[in-house]
Design brief:
The structure holds three protein chains of three kinds. Chain A is mainly α. Chain A has one domain: Orthogonal Bundle (MetI-like fold), CATH 1.10.3720. Helix content of chain A is about 75%, strand content about 0%. Chain A has 13 helices and two strands, in the order αββαααααααααααα. In chain A, α3 packs across α7 and α8 packs across α9. Chain A is globular, with a radius of gyration of 23 Å. Chain B is about 75% helix and about 0% strand. In chain B, α6 runs antiparallel to α9. Chain B is globular. The relative contact order of chain B is 0.14. In chain C, β1 and β2 form a beta hairpin. In chain C, α2 crosses α3, α2 packs parallel to α4 and α3 crosses α4. Classes of the chains: A mainly alpha, B mainly alpha, C alpha+beta. Chains in contact: A-B, A-C, B-C. The interface between A and B is large, with 95 and 96 residues.
Amino acid sequence: MEGTGRSSSWALFVGPYGVYLLVFLVLPFANVALLSVYHHSPTKIAVAGFTAANYTRLFELYYATLFLRTVRLSLIVTAVCAILGYPLAYLLARSTSRIVTLGLFLLIVPLMVSTVIRVFGWVVILGSEGLVNQALRLLGAEEGVRLLYTEGAVILGLAQQSMPFMVLPLLAAIERISPSLEEAAQNLGASWSQMFARVIVPLSMPGLVSGSLLVFSVSMSAFITPALMGGRRVRMVGQQIYEEVLTAYDWPGAASLTIVLAVLMLGLVGLTLRTTRRRARLESARP
Amino acid sequence: MRGGAPRFLWVLAIAVYVLLLAPLVVVIAVSFGATATFDFPPKGLSLRWYQAFFASPMFVRSFFRVSQVIGLWTALVATIAGTLAAIGLVRFRFPGRQAIETFFLSPLLVPHILLGAAVYLYLARLAWPTSSLTLLVGHIAIATPYVIRCVTAGLVGMDPRLEEAAMSLGASRVQAFFRVTLPLLRSSLVTGAVFAFIISFSDINLALFLAGANAPSLPVHIFSQIQFEADPSIAAASALQIVIVGGLILLVQRLFRLRLIV
Amino acid sequence: MAAPRGRLEVRGLTKRFSPQVTVGPLSFEVQEGEFFSLLGPSGCGKTTTLRCIGGFESLTEGSIALDGRRLHDRPPHKRDVGLVFQNYALFPHLTVFDNIAFGLRLRKVDRADIERRVAQMLELVDLPQVAGRYPAQLSGGQQQRVAIARSLVLEPSLLLFDEPLSNLDFKLRIQMRYELRDLQRRLGTTAVYVTHDQTEALALSDRIAVLSQGRIEQIGPPGEIYERPASAFVADFIGSSNLVAARVGRAGEDGHTAVETEEGLALAIPRIGDAAGTAVTLLLRPERFQMATGHDGEASAVNRFAARVRDVTYLGEDLHLRVLARDRQPLLVAIKNSKGTRAIAPGTTIDLSIDPEDIHVLRR
């Protein structure tokens, strides 16, 4: 699209939101970075002065375990979403547009509904007085099964929450693969699963990568889902940040956690952009 | 015999959809229950929990005075700011355009909890107490990228020669914009506004930090109710939200290719 | 490397898409080593037929057998049939080598063998240098050859071609045509070739099946299809033609029957048995007319008439003339451009003749 505007009036259009983000996005994070090196004081909350204590404490057992658990759960959720999401994305990609419209609708609505509502639904299903336990009692079990406040519940909740973030990029990637490639592979002797592994997966890899990145970041920074479905037993970084800001008033501590998580997210984004760009360059090279 | 996908894939796909939709279906079903317990299928149908919802001042206030109002204001401001930004990005050339576009879309990648914490701490430094206004501020930041994406897609798909044709017929640049471009962008604008509303209406992570202490948004109120006092009026509130969001998305799906935005 | 097999039998092949849209029933046989074309306009069902043989469409009715074994109920990856796609369908994420080796790897052929056979195949299609490149780095003609190599390396009994040359530009298409034919002859692999280009079908095939609206109009070698089309459709589709409505007249003594076109042009054709007054369609190929110079012998006295030129299309090698024979019968005439034709312009009158043997009769 050619630029049709005079060279200076672009500022009028781009300015408002640009300034807005500077004030309400960049400055807050700059403030957080600053806070993360302040001293924490129980009385004054944060005292100016340089200290690395907020970062070094992250290597202590409690925080290290917290991070490792968060990463581990996020990786599991990513794997679950990839395994369950790939077939779904493939089927949608190869379906008629009516089915795709319906399929997308059913995928996006849970995404757009507030997280609390989704989690509330799970609580009703998995709670000690919830549906699963009611069903078990009907079948004669005496004791209920504790389903909530387990890692399994958190993984389930996060997987449900993040699934659309995996399916949508995969869907876009698979749609770009011409069906004649599938037919060629089968004609050369590949069964459906061989064709899927050797043609669809390699060619939709960029979709898998961006989907995985999205799911991983959503899980890493999740708060409501682990808070309500995992409670104290299953703690993730999001819950820690929330507590340190609003309950413990350890703002420098919360700031350091925020910065670490933000840097991690940035790193992942950069990594995926680089890998997808390299691949795209290779596959569309001109002689 | 066709070499199609094996049968079990369809089973897997249905299972995934069951996973995705189960909580929502359960919530809606429970909201129509006649008893105070969470039964599925519900023992008896009644609207009592909806009545309880409307009878509860906190619920009504959080829904209509806070969430809905902030949602509408977010939609308005985000649409205006986002449309301006999209026009600037698509129709002009200037140094750093690519970088600025990435910057504008960055709130999509920033986890809301981090943004919420960051803005909260920042407001504390400025000694600015939280209120519906601060929540609005946060929502505008995260909703505008959706509008930018919608309008960008609409602009890119539009033939720029239409504006040129209008100008060759005597319209000034501004007139051409209002008479030709804007009407053609109508579906993008509506879609963007609807998404901005939904993002604001459904947000919880920002609201936990930025909502006024006495003016919780609907999701925040539901959150506290889940933790302290769970009765099926929560289900009624939730079901209402589901229906509103679902209805809006249905509307938008007719206007726009959703995949471009999410 | 010759494949002493590849006999295809198609019986009553029917594919019903909807009550109004059906392909078939079609029946035909392809002999070992034969180059068999399915020719017809778009929508005639040729691609559907090919895809049925390849296994990507299921038959509503009928059967397909290869070397006596049933083919139509086997999944596409278990048929011994190679398919060369119109858009080549080369795997963009694999090198040329890996593309060609794809099928071999699935069959667990060992490495040394794979390398040998791929190298051999690349030599055969005249692309020895490109093994390490990616499809996006090759030209259209090169991609086409890799696609063929990829199917051939598996030594299938039957090769299917789905309009493989239609994405190439004109000159390349002609060149590839010869190469394709040479390759097929050398390997002796049975080939079924789908195309809408009748020149291509004529040039490449041992036999052609002309299809229209889901049915076979005629099967035969190129000469027969061209010289003795079975129906007006075939006559019109292959080559250019003058299809003229006429009525049978009296039988003559010299082994000819007289006919008269609706426009009133009298011609002589080889004797036919139809009664006088029968309505027929005459096929006169434009290139079969000869320019009779004034003092030619009596050989051209039969079917000789004056024709006024209405317009001339200059095509370099040929001239296409639209004429009005005896001021009545519009005809399209194609003659070779030469010194003697320089003077022909709209308005001039020329003498034309046509051998009775060159007039083909189609029953209505």
